[in-house]
Amino acid sequence: MGTKLESGVVGSEEEAGSRAPLLSIRSVAKSFGRNIVLRNISLDVSEGEFLTILGESGSGKTTLLRIIAGFESASAGEVWMGNERLDRQPPYQRRVNTVFQNYALFPHLTVEENVAYGLRVSKRPDAEVLTRVSEALSKVKMSAHAKSKPAKISGGQQQRVALARALVNRPRLLLLDEPLSALDANLRRQMQVELKSLQREVGISFIFVTHDQEEAMVMSDRIALLRSGELEQVATPREIYGRPATAYAAQFIGHTNLLKCEVKDGIARCLPLMWITKVPEGPALFSLRPENIRLATGNVGIVGTVRVRGRVCQQAFHGATELIRVECGNGLVLAVRIAGRDAEAAPMGEIELEFSSSDAVPVRESPDRI
Amino acid sequence: MELLVKENNTLSNSPWLLLHASAVFAFLYLPIAVLILYSFNGEGVGGFPPRHLTLGWYRILFADGPIWDSVLNSLQVAAAAVVIALGFGVPAALALDRTQFFGKALFRRLVLLPLILPGIITGLSLLMLFNVSGTKLSLLTIILGHGTALISVATTEVFAGLQKLDRAQEEASLDLGANYWQTFWRITVPNLKLPIVGAALLIFTLSMDEIAVSFFLIGRDNTLPLEIWGRLRRGITPEINAVSTIIFLFSLVAIVLWYRLRVRSEPDVDVGSEIVQTAEGHTI
Q1: N or C: which terminus of chain B has fewer CB atoms within 10 Å of its end residue's CB?
Q2: How far off is chain A from B180, nearest CA to CA, in Å?
């Protein structure tokens, strides 16, 4: 298991492009009447990968998932699994299974019968059905409730049954449509960990849909950020956080300062700040994470460090960290995250801040879309 | 909501409401009570108070061949009408719920039409059809009459059930590898059990006491309502009360069965509002 874990998680950054993808979404578009939901989506998912489609409600993420599952047909584009054209197959022939948002367990069948459903309709021999169902139920720790009807078990338990019902068929790809959104916060965190370790254990590719950026960060090998039907960025959580491609990505994932600069003669100016950059001449947008700004210490003059003085105008205590807002003059207000224990020491009035210019990441403007 | 509750409280405290409600219930149920009471009356249908209580009328009833023939006929007609109405009504409801086709609005109204049309019109038009086609009137013509007239009941009941069905369940079934046909039998039909059983019971009862359509289509064999109606012309005896009492008891059992089925399968559902909902379904 250890080796699989490493190749699946650590190596995914470099290998995602080079390995033959399991699922390949090519230029998929979808509109309902005149309402355009998805435009020109191209996305590859590799074997054993945990990919999250992250987006606000109405961004088209569920529609994309339904196109992969076969409940909607794409208006344009193709979906391939290996060398099979997936989007021409009816849903019941695709080697893809889904965990639905409301679980969609069959109310008239017991937990056991629910899990056995896929194997029964594909006419597997009784003995095989029994062993695989009991294996799947014990994997999700639901063996004790095998004979219960879905209405008699809790939301978290229904969630596990839905998972077992999908995994027992050994799909090549599992789709999960906001499966944790109905659970309360504690159970949700617990299920995030369980889902992730289950995915590593079974080694099946997961496509996980959520609107919760924190959930996406915690669980994913890669995140595909969707906005108004278009992909903003597809990258690992570290990459998308550290090197956001667009202003929207920078703001949606985590907290950031967006600096509107003017670049001239290799110097970015956002008065009163300025630093040396390789960005081409003209207007430019930079993202600067609050935790990359520090209280200035020591001597001036370290190469690549930008210093600025300002007045603290707001403080918000978050426990481990504290977020302060600093008025730096010229209408510029910087959000700064400092460690919680520094907070007491943090002076209220005038302070001096510094950040290294390499932490100011150039991002593309995110144009308004309808 | 709160307002409604308050209103309810003041209303239920009013003595007029109690009086009004009692009057309504008396109007509805007193005749039935009297009918049952007089089936035990030794002195015929007249006279108050009833005297010489007896089971004699039931004894006469059980020895009465023609009545039992008509009961048997009615049961056959009702059972066949249920099969025909469901056989056409369920697919019609599925088509209305699932598909878009040219003339759907017209189709919906045409399906519901027999529910609104007076029985005389339905009966008369069917009679003319059978005359033209040279079909001899018999139980079969009554069965066809009841079956077609009651398709609308099956359609509306099942349509209401389909509207409440969680479509994600059918998607889950397809997702798990069941094709459309398997999904229909394994998921859709079990989830429509209540509306289908409800429709069957309703169609059965409606057919059992149908007179207008039957009147035009009757051959040599009488149905129970027509047999009773025929006897009323020769003068009424408490034997009729006795047979009515038995029918009443059977209806009661049917209603209780349906109610219990409903409560068992949907324990959290307020059955009263469910009935109102299905009743509303008839006016779509």
Answers
A1: N
A2: 9
What are the structural domain ranges in chain A? Answer: 2-95+171-248, 255-363
Please report, for chain B, the start and end positions of each structural domain, with discontinuous segments joined by +.
65-281
Mean pLDDT of all residues belonging to chain A: 87
Q: Which CATH class is domain B65-281?
A: mainly alpha
With cut-offs at 50, 70 and 90, classify the pLDDT of residue B30.
very high
Nearest-by-Cβ selection for A97 from B175, B179, B191 = B175
Give φ, ψ of A196 to 5 degrees.
-65, -45
Pairing of strands A230-235, A222-227: antiparallel
pLDDT more than 90, % of chain A: 55
User: So what's the pLDDT on residue B112?
Assistant: 83
Residue B266 pLDDT grade (very low, low, confident, very high; cuts 50, 70, 90): low
- The CATH code of domain A255-363 reads 2.40.50.100
Residue ranges in chain B assigned as alpha helix (H) = 2-13, 15-38, 56-62, 65-98, 104-116, 119-133, 139-149, 151-164, 167-175, 180-183, 189-191, 193-208, 212-217, 224-232, 238-265, 271-281
Note the pLDDT tens digit of each residue in A55-109. 998 899 999 999 999 999 999 999 999 888 998 999 999 999 999 988 999 999 9
Quick check: B187 contacting A, CB < 8 Å?
yes
What residue in B sits closest to A166 (Cα-Cα)? B176
Question: In chain A, what residues touch B168 (CB-CB under 8 Å)?
Answer: 100-102, 104
Query: Interface pTM (ipTM) of the complex?
Result: 0.81
Identify whether B190 is preceded by a cis peptide bond (ω within 30 of 0): no
Check residue A109 and give its pLDDT.
94
> How far is Cα A273 from Cα B22, in angstroms, rounded to an integer?
86
| B187 vs A contacts (CB less than 8 Å) | 106
CA distance A291 to chain B (A): 44
User: pTM here?
Assistant: 0.76
Q: Using the beta-carbon criterion (under 8 Å), do B176 and A117 form an inter-chain contact?
A: yes
Q: For residue B166, which residues of chain A lie inside 8 Å, CB to CB?
A: 102, 104
A370 against B52, higher pLDDT: B52
Q: How far is B166 from chain A (nearest CA, A)?
A: 8
Decide: B226 and B215 in contact? Cβ < 8 Å: yes
Query: Hey, is the C-beta of B182 within 8 angstroms of any chain A C-beta?
Result: yes
In this model, does residue A45 exceed pLDDT 90? yes
A162 neighbors A136 (Cβ within 8 angstroms) = no
Q: Which homologous superfamily is A2-95+171-248 in?
A: P-loop containing nucleotide triphosphate hydrolases (3.40.50.300)
